[in-house]
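Hi everyone,

Forwarding the result from last night's run.
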Amino acid sequence: MNKGIFTIVLLIFTLFQAQKPVQIAFLSDVHFQDLYGSFSDHDFKGTINPKTGKSTILRTMDSQLHSTRIFNENYFTFLKALDDIAVKGIKIVAMPGDFSDDGQAYNLRGLHKILEEYHGRYGIRFYLTTGNHDPVGPFRNDGGKDDFLGTDGNPLGIYSRKDVGKSTEKVITKDIAESGYLEILNELKDFGFYPQKEDLFWSTPFDGSSSENYSYEEGLQAADYSKRMYDVAQGFSVPDLSYVVEPVKDVWMIAIDGNTYIPKNLSENPANPSNYKGAAIGYNNVLTSKQHLIQWVKKLADEAKKNNKTLIAFTHYPMIDFNDGATHEIKSLLGEKKWQLERVPEEEVSKVFAEAGLQIHFAGHMHINDTGIRKTEDTFLVNIQVPSLAAYVPAYKVLTIQSPDKMEIQTEILDEVPRFDELFPLYEKEYDALQRNTGKILWNKDILKTKSYHDFMLFHLKELVRLRMIPDDWPEDFIKKAKELNGEDLLLLIQNKGLKAKGIKSENFKNWSFDDLLLDVYQFQSADELAKKDIPEERLKQYHVLETLYRDNNSKDPFIQQLKSVFKILSLLSHGDPADHFEIDLKRKEIRKL
């Protein structure tokens, strides 16, 4: 090639590389469990899968279908997501908590191995922050699960001590104990919790350092476990693994450790791991018991503004109400303790952090796809809920920083996952064993006929609603009455005259039941606008008709009032802010659907 042409091509390539926007993938609530892991002090390798001949440490399908997350197939989905990210050429991955499922040592080792492999093979750098499942409490605690699958198809208990758990069939290993912060830090320190040499800046809320005089050696000293403690109550010192990192020039990522472990009894020994409440409530407790984080975020926001740094925060917990304005209606219909309403952040949370200077925040915890916005004359905060790989709809988010003022968010759905059905023969064995125990509710075996991961996760949601959500959240008398109704019945309850004049054919509403409606409500709550792909278009139009009719109806009948609430909740959940592919304009304080 001519030397002059070569120089021009090289210059163009260099300019293109320099101008390439920064991309960050967000993988939340992976709930990683190592299907093919091992215990350091026990030779139990799991149950042999007749399909593969491999020993597998897995949880039962029955336990999965009663949980807001699956425990097993997300292993394959995690690998698929990382492969997807590698193909896209994305080099930064942030994981906003619940990267493990209760932080057991064997799972942490398995996660470490995978992250190290993808870093070595593709140069991907991982930045983790903790969720309420990693750790479950601030310090290591004995534990275990009753619902692993035994070799005979029956549940098997795996515990860290003989006197833990109720199963008669037991495996005892220290590797199933719930790790505390120290164990998690020791195993996963290379993935954000400690500075790496390639990081341009790294700091914690406790070291007081500035980016202007940063050195890697000082960062290492600040990362030490003993220097990352605070008093949650007098005499109760607990860890906080928050950090800020500059992985590439002019982009600061704040990994906020939103876990707040408050002691149950102030007279107890502070070292007793069982004497701490769980952290699932999220930021509401940060406001009262972790104020140092608010001051730290304000300091970082001021410094970022001064030095022209783009600030991106991620935490496990949402900063903004994630029910698209339906929280009050849900409370009125079901009560304050239902629908996980205790996890909804108070309005004060978004106000405080927006006033501290935060604008972009990624969260997980709820296993939902959602976007929340809070805007005043002086502040603008966007909370992006990252879906879980272990729930409907399985997806991750990609942030593209186009400029300091413009960000693009793309939701990457994982419909097809290789090997998602690898464990189905083991579930067949479980179902047969469960069938022999006549006193137990059987899960729907048709889930083993699903042909894609998307369909598998939608089936999981359907069974979860049937087996857990309806019995736990909804008034029994209301469900008993409503269950008998189809779409036409719901229409004729409030409008049996003048339908023809409005161009409405009631018989067209017969095709779906109240059970379908309720499932669709949960689909919208979980997937936001992405749920529309799984609901027939004609039914969506019929919902709109019913939403309007019920909204305008003034009946005082209690049952009609309850149905009115259901349709209002459906309407609000299905008309939220853009949550699939959108652009955030910080200068104009607006988001635009793409």
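The longest strand covers residues 395-403.

Cheers,
N.
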